[in-house]
Amino acid sequence: MGPDVPLLNEYKQEFFWKRFPQTVLGGPRFKLGYCAPPFVYVNQVVLFLTPWLFGGIGTLLCQLQVLQELHAAVLSGMLMFAAAVAVQALAHYAARKSSTVERLGAPNILVDEEEVEFTNCVSPETVRFIAPGKRFGLNVVLHTILAGALCGFGTWYVFLGRLTALYGSIGVSLVVFVLSWVTLCIAEYSLIVNTATETATFQAQDTYEITPLTRPLYAFAFIAVDLAYRFSNPVPELHLSSQTLHVLFLFLPLLWALGILPPLDALLLWGMEQALVFGLGGSPMSSNLRLLLMFSLSTSVAVCNYFIPSTLGVVLFSVSMGFLLSLDLSQVHTLCRRPNTTFRNHVLHRDVSQLLTPSSFGWTLGGRELLLHLILLLVAMAEGGLLHHFTGPAQSLLQAPISYLLLVLFCVCWAVREIQEVYVFGGVFLNPFYPRGITNVQTFKQKSKGLYIAAAFRRILLYLVSPFAMIAFLSMDKSVQFTHRVSVSVGFTRAFRVVWQSSEDALLQMVIVVLLRFAEGNTILSGWDNLGTEPLFLIQVGLLIDRLRQFMAKLKFTLTVLVTSWTEKKQRRQSAGILLALNASLCPLLLTVVALSALLSAPLLPLFTLPIFLVGFPRPQRSWPGPVGTACPCPDSVFYKQMIGSLASSLRTAFARGSLGSLTPGSHFLGRFQDRMVWIMILERGYGYCTVNIKGLELQETSCHTVEARRVDEVFEAAFEHPERIGFSHGFNSHWGNALTPCATLEVRVYSDARNVLSGIIDSHENLRKLQDDFMKVLIWLLLRYGVQKHKGFLWSSQEGSGIWGMKSQQDSSSTTSFGDWSDEDDLFGPQPARRTVALVTAEAQPGHTTLETGGSLPGSVEMDSLFENMALSALQPLQPLGLGIGMPAVDKGLNPELFRENPHLNFSCPYSEIFNLPPGWRTAPLLPSCLLSLRPLFPEEWFRFTLGRFGVAVQGQTSEDMNKALKEDEVLKELHVKVALSCLISLGAETAFNSPSYIYRVYCGDVPWTEGLDWLSSSKELYQLTLKAFRLSFKLLFDQASLGAMESHEELFSTLEDYERDWYIGLVTEKGWHDGVLQEKPFLFSLGHDLAMGTYTGRVLTLQEQLVQVGHLNGEGVRGQWANLSWELLYATNDDEERYSIQAHPFMLRNLTVQAADPPLGYPIYSSAPLHFPCL
Fold this sequence. Notes:
Keywords: Membrane, Transmembrane, Transmembrane helix. By secondary structure, the protein is of the alpha+beta class.
């Protein structure tokens, strides 16, 4: 797609220009897109001006001194209340009337969905169009009362006399009066008549009708300040605030239209989050419920501090509660029950404890963890209490050495953290100490030992030394004597909390305070005693640091959008020059927008991702209202589910070492390995833990995805894969302007994906002939192994997790019955006269194990070469003499076809042969004996005896030459397996050879072409699956021999088959067994595929191994800005065009990947974890 693709298509443009005027005016619809009678517009104008009319009556009566201000305001409010009741009653009547009409009438599907047939000015259709009414009765009452109250208070708010006294000018008062009533009319209309769709939309659906309350409550907030000014003593600050807010009140419609003011739900969550972080020392939370609970607990601590009479009690209580609230207390009950249950729902049947070291500190809340936390708590309380109690007048003097200690701790921790990343100094310069150009995990670990030691030293300083140094600094501050002030109480609550909640940030804040105190005197310590540490100063420093970081990140994002809109040819639209010129000429305004968005902690919204910047409405750091963990799953999601446990362990280590920089909630990271991309977001941060959300992006790369993925590879390659470079110019980050800054590499246990074209292998005649021999050997091996597993008390695949068919699945299979519930004598093995297709059999089959059903009998022969020439006579049926039929080759009656059906217990010459007996139904293939006799040479007797000997040892548990010899000489056992194996071979149509690659592919997929014995084979699900598995194993054997060379001995072949059974899943990507095999972390998986476009057959091999996954830090403000635009585009402009401009590839902003990573329904990650809690100590 070119850069000049329409921002909105024609239909959406028409829709937008109908919706936007409605949003500006608060709900009236004057642009319909079709002709409407004049009374529709007149009715809306009258309803819009009704509050002004009633307010004007009250104002007029007040100006004429007929009524006092209060009485006039009450009169206006009562009139508006009556009008609101009338409107709601009329809307309710119209809704009931319209519902009756709708049931009787037939809808006209040819009419535009928005077109309404108006009959008269008060018809139900007209009323429903103008005033749709409320869905809930409670909202009818609440909104009606608020409408009257808003009109009454609004009248009082804009009395002309009051405005004249406030501004001292009649002209200014008239302007403010008129425009203020426009604002009030807009708020009233959206509350009681019809609510417009807001540009500031947080929720996809307004389930509880909260949106109508947004504009009136903002108006009430302005009125509340004026009321406080009226009823309080004269305060210059309140007077100035009232004047300013009266002017700002006039611009509320503009702020509502631009979407700067947040909806109520977003405002509430944002306000609690800001107060918790900057006022109470907490952290943004991973869910709304956790945010509410933590805000309540933290507020309670501040209140308790205010009422505690003893300053020593304040110190002890603040230190203890600050430590306890900084821990992840919500996980206590989970971690006490069993380890790692946090990940249990995300890795399904796979135990994550196998991936994570069970003894690793922090994953379980055991004795060591409890003991450490208890020791830290007691030491912190003892330190704070003793220092505060005994230092006395020398408190300020003793702060000096602790201040120097804080400076040293900060410098050391910062320097050690910097060298843990591949880039230093904000991602500008390459780190000379970081190992690069290494792909081997062990080599990387060896070369990183020095960094690991430094990281361990930093961890001790940051988590065990710094908190106690900061507690000592705070405990000796003399402002703790004034905790009965609200500001000081809140300040100390935050200060003692943040030293644990975010030790690194707290250390930086206190160092800045120390430096400022040093700078105030003529000498370093001059005036030290008189300065003190005002707790509010720490709050201001923390807030300033956060807003400055946001400003710098937003400014970098702004420059990226501006510069790339011209330098990138594929992003250069026709309007690019004009937009750049406007931004340059309005540079002060642009900086003001950036600064305002940083000040409000709101996203900087680039409209359509163009260099048109707006201030998005403030919202929580998570950006999305729904619970964390929603995704759009697909078959590829399994790869992210598999790696989540190992990735969690590696992230835990990286967080603890500081390899990913300073961890702040709202940070975003991107990991890349082969075709997989992992999006990591920090949700919450506390002492010794970090909560993250991990998302997996799609593997089926589109053109836009490919462009950005290629740029991600280039950025990582420049940082990690180039060997050590010499020269100052080579030390710069050439991709500094990119949204992605490489950080570190993580060791993750993940599948590497290799795909090979099988040309020259699958189409080789020699290989096709070899496949027949391999198939017979593998099938015999499986038949004998089946007997061994049944003898041990469970069938070969039902309980053996390592078995290749141990995954209880098959393509499109919905069956969950295990083979352990089946027996040879079960009625399930009875004959099935109705023919079933192979696809149906496959769908009914159990994954990895099947049960056979008997079919027609196979006639035998009494010739010397008979399959049963060595069988004991007692095993033969008396009605069919042994000599009958000799000399009559045309009839060739041979043995009784009911031989094995009526006598399932054969007379084996060896007592152990019964172990390897096969179900009776497997002996009854309806095939001519001559056909079996002609294929007898294909049976590998040497391989059969070798395999029988090996399995015989496995059955007895010890070597017994006599037993092995007896087994090998049991001709009845041999002939039984000969017959079953050859019958399966014929049923697959392979009695001559596998004649073409397409035939092999069809059989591999289970789509076996019809043959004479296929109905018999497919009627027995277990034998069918056993045969299919043998074919797949034999093809994998063929693939390996073509690549690595032929098998040189039976021992090597036997060992290879055991490896297949233990370490491999061989099947199809579409099968559930493939999905389960990935989750169970089978070491290897193999699948055969067919590329229809290229006309080639491919082999896909997944290999599980520890790999280096490269991780980089994303510009968090760039992500928030693009997500804010995505929310505006889809929820307000409804611009869901898959080829829209704002979703096109952008190599610098990574626009397409960012859109994918958004929460559904706006984004489409194929995997998203619930909040994962990592220990970081």
